[in-house]
Amino acid sequence: QVQLVESGGGLVQPGGSLRLSCAASGSIFSIGAMGWYRQAPGKQRDLVAAITSGGSTRYVDSVKGRFTISRDNAKNTVYLQMNNLKPEDTAVYYCNAALSGNFRGWGQGTQVTVSS
Q: Which residues neighbour 65 within 8 Å (Cβ) at sequence distance 6 or greater?
């Protein structure tokens, strides 16, 4: 079974940037559309960005213009470039299939904290 390992989180000031990576132990092309999710304390895990195998992307309104999702099928890695970070972006970030029917096991996620 494909394992997903997220990295790249950290503490950043408002307005700062981070680049998250999600390394898969197997083919992400076989999974299809991939997504980045986030879960803030006491809240549900929500999809914030998705990318198809062909590179088409979509975002929730709250991150449009600030976040960019990309993928490297050859490296089996998905990225999330996050710019102009805001305190409300603070959460644990996870990657997985964008469609629930294609979910693999959830990784441990990577913590993003935006605070001055």
A: none
Per-residue pLDDT of the chain (116 residues; tens, 9 = 90+): 889 999 999 999 999 999 999 999 989 988 999 999 999 999 999 999 999 999 999 999 999 999 999 999 999 999 999 999 999 999 999 999 998 888 888 999 999 999 99
How far apart, in whole angstroms, are the C-alpha atoms of residue 111 and residue 53?
26
Asked if 76 contacts 63 with a C-beta cutoff of 8 angstroms, the reply is: no
CA atoms within 13 A on the CB side of 33: 13
Q: Nearest to residue 107, comparing CAs of 18, 24, 45, 9?
A: 24
- What are the angstrom distances between the C-alpha of 101 and each of 35, 51, 83, 96? 13, 16, 30, 11
H or E element at residue 110:
strand 110-114
The Cα–Cα gap between 9 and 109 comes to 9
